[in-house]
Amino acid sequence: MKLSALKRPNGRIFTIGVPYLWLLLFFALPFLIVLKISFSSMAIAIPPYEAIMQYRDEVLEFALNIGNYILLMDDSLYVSAYLNSVKVAFISTLWCLILGYPMAYAIAKAPPRKQTILLLLVMLPSWTSFLIRVYAWMGLISDTGLINTTLMSLGIIDDPLRIMNTNTAVYIGIVYAYLPFMVLPLYANLVKLDGSLLEAASDLGSRSLHTFWSITLPLSKGGIIAGSMLVFIPAVGEFVIPELLGGPNSLMIGKVLWQEFFNNRDWPVASALAMVMLLLLIIPIALFHRYQSRTMEAGS
Amino acid sequence: MRKLGFSTIMLWVGLLFLYLPMLILVIYSFNASKLVTVWGGWSGKWYAELLKDEQIIDAVFTSLAIAFYSSCMAVILGTMAAFVMTRFRHSWAKMTLSNMITAPLVMPEVITGLSLLLLFVHMADMIGWPTERGMTTVWIAHSTFCAAYVAVVVSSRLREVDRSVEEAALDLGATPLQSFFLVTVPMITPALVSGWLLAFSLSLDDLVIASFTSGPGSTTLPMVVFSSVRLGVSPKINALATLIIVAVSLVALIAWYIAHRSQKRSLARMNEE
């Protein structure tokens, strides 16, 4: 047996081991810690919580505080923040789909040379700063913003449209920021669609709209799921958009978590909020993963 | 035929929607007036004022340093994970790794940020490191989430390349390490470069995770921008935003161009064969 053949298992263990250990330490373990802190109680100390397990006077004390979770269920503020987050994320995802599907369809049907350029045009904004894209809307939709001043000087409206600091502003922000993430997987799916199927359908007398509903749409299910999850999941936990565009009235869970952590310094409640958010998102995340690992491992 | 027309119109409406707000932002960064909505003629004075702001200049260098080191680490981790996902036999370890590496793609940032911060606090408590949060902790956080994006980019390239060349190298007596660095790496270089650039721009852009994991003295550019944007629109931030848009677009265009050119080349090669 050659030496290289002997060495191979070590190389394999190293290749899988390094990223594995890194992710175990910096991705998986932190979640267990969040889970642990969510069961501890707040304390005026550094760090600001009490340990779950304590050894005192020869007694090992093990205190599991479920108060944080009870608080989340009792306080209508948290409940409505969760409900509002899911609602806002759902409606924004729907708008992304309505706007993004025809866009992806048009790109997939364009000549191949134009496809890459169009795709680049759609993706380019998503590479520029997220914060700045949200900021760009502040100057447009505020009461003294460009849209209102223009409409008022043209005499179309007398009072400024109240868009800033409403849920509408948050919808605009999320759709604007996440639209490219909807278009990309949809395009990847639609471009692989077998053109001969559609031709056969139209040869057999199917009307174009009917062909779309009965063939194109069902076949692009994978792209719709992937794109929707790429928008919905981050949108539920979104912080920047509700903070900057939604104003003090917009209650979203990412913002509440941020405030509990940074303003109230209540780490245990912030952790409990994160755990409940994860629980809400577990089905969407699982859906996305099934799609993602299928595309990543396909053909290997 | 009518439906095609509809989707084409939607495409242009969508593109207009994507670009118009940024275009207006760029135009207004040259506004001489201090009032952000009143046009007072063309001027570059906000750019001059920007260069005098030391807090912003400091933050730019902090962000660039963090982005540089994070994207390097992300490429190493992401490439290793991508190699495992595309070249290793199916196993439990491979399955859990591919789940963990892609999870940050959709994880809400507040959760990632909070969980990493709590980890660092615990580590400081147990092993005495990190003594304080700063550039190192942000580097760890950014490397972890950027590695997910690198893994996606690199694994799609690894799946495309001709594996028979790698196998030939191994048959001819190359060690797996030699085969990887002498055969595989040259074939996937474009993907590595565009993965690095993608990680670089993601790290440069991140606000939420950096806010959780940074400490005093390691304020990144998005953190500075955010704290001033919270107070409302200002012409100086418009100028800064314009510079960021231009810089990031340039990096993105280069990344795209490199990936695109290599794709075209490999297509041409396939046609020749």
Automatic annotation (TrEMBL), chain A:
<keyword id="KW-0812">Transmembrane</keyword>
<dbReference type="InterPro" id="IPR035906">
    <property type="entry name" value="MetI-like_sf"/>
</dbReference>
<feature type="transmembrane region" description="Helical">
    <location>
        <begin position="81"/>
        <end position="105"/>
    </location>
</feature>
<dbReference type="Pfam" id="PF00528">
    <property type="entry name" value="BPD_transp_1"/>
</dbReference>
<keyword id="KW-1133">Transmembrane helix</keyword>
<keyword id="KW-0813">Transport</keyword>
<feature type="transmembrane region" description="Helical">
    <location>
        <begin position="169"/>
        <end position="191"/>
    </location>
</feature>
<dbReference type="InterPro" id="IPR000515">
    <property type="entry name" value="MetI-like"/>
</dbReference>
<feature type="transmembrane region" description="Helical">
    <location>
        <begin position="117"/>
        <end position="138"/>
    </location>
</feature>
<dbReference type="GO" id="GO:0055085">
    <property type="term" value="P:transmembrane transport"/>
</dbReference>
<keyword id="KW-1003">Cell membrane</keyword>
<protein>
    <submittedName>
        <fullName>Putrescine transport system permease protein</fullName>
    </submittedName>
</protein>
<feature type="transmembrane region" description="Helical">
    <location>
        <begin position="212"/>
        <end position="236"/>
    </location>
</feature>
<feature type="transmembrane region" description="Helical">
    <location>
        <begin position="267"/>
        <end position="288"/>
    </location>
</feature>
<feature type="transmembrane region" description="Helical">
    <location>
        <begin position="21"/>
        <end position="46"/>
    </location>
</feature>
<feature type="domain" description="ABC transmembrane type-1">
    <location>
        <begin position="82"/>
        <end position="288"/>
    </location>
</feature>
<keyword id="KW-0472">Membrane</keyword>
<dbReference type="GO" id="GO:0005886">
    <property type="term" value="C:plasma membrane"/>
</dbReference>
<comment type="similarity">
    <text>Belongs to the binding-protein-dependent transport system permease family. CysTW subfamily.</text>
</comment>
From TrEMBL, chain B:
<feature type="transmembrane region" description="Helical">
    <location>
        <begin position="105"/>
        <end position="124"/>
    </location>
</feature>
<protein>
    <submittedName>
        <fullName>Putrescine transport system permease protein</fullName>
    </submittedName>
</protein>
<feature type="transmembrane region" description="Helical">
    <location>
        <begin position="9"/>
        <end position="30"/>
    </location>
</feature>
<dbReference type="Pfam" id="PF00528">
    <property type="entry name" value="BPD_transp_1"/>
</dbReference>
<dbReference type="InterPro" id="IPR035906">
    <property type="entry name" value="MetI-like_sf"/>
</dbReference>
<comment type="similarity">
    <text>Belongs to the binding-protein-dependent transport system permease family. CysTW subfamily.</text>
</comment>
<keyword id="KW-0472">Membrane</keyword>
<dbReference type="InterPro" id="IPR000515">
    <property type="entry name" value="MetI-like"/>
</dbReference>
<dbReference type="InterPro" id="IPR051789">
    <property type="entry name" value="Bact_Polyamine_Transport"/>
</dbReference>
<feature type="transmembrane region" description="Helical">
    <location>
        <begin position="179"/>
        <end position="199"/>
    </location>
</feature>
<keyword id="KW-0813">Transport</keyword>
<keyword id="KW-1133">Transmembrane helix</keyword>
<keyword id="KW-1003">Cell membrane</keyword>
<feature type="transmembrane region" description="Helical">
    <location>
        <begin position="136"/>
        <end position="158"/>
    </location>
</feature>
<dbReference type="GO" id="GO:0055085">
    <property type="term" value="P:transmembrane transport"/>
</dbReference>
<feature type="domain" description="ABC transmembrane type-1">
    <location>
        <begin position="60"/>
        <end position="255"/>
    </location>
</feature>
<feature type="transmembrane region" description="Helical">
    <location>
        <begin position="59"/>
        <end position="84"/>
    </location>
</feature>
<dbReference type="GO" id="GO:0005886">
    <property type="term" value="C:plasma membrane"/>
</dbReference>
<feature type="transmembrane region" description="Helical">
    <location>
        <begin position="237"/>
        <end position="259"/>
    </location>
</feature>
<keyword id="KW-0812">Transmembrane</keyword>
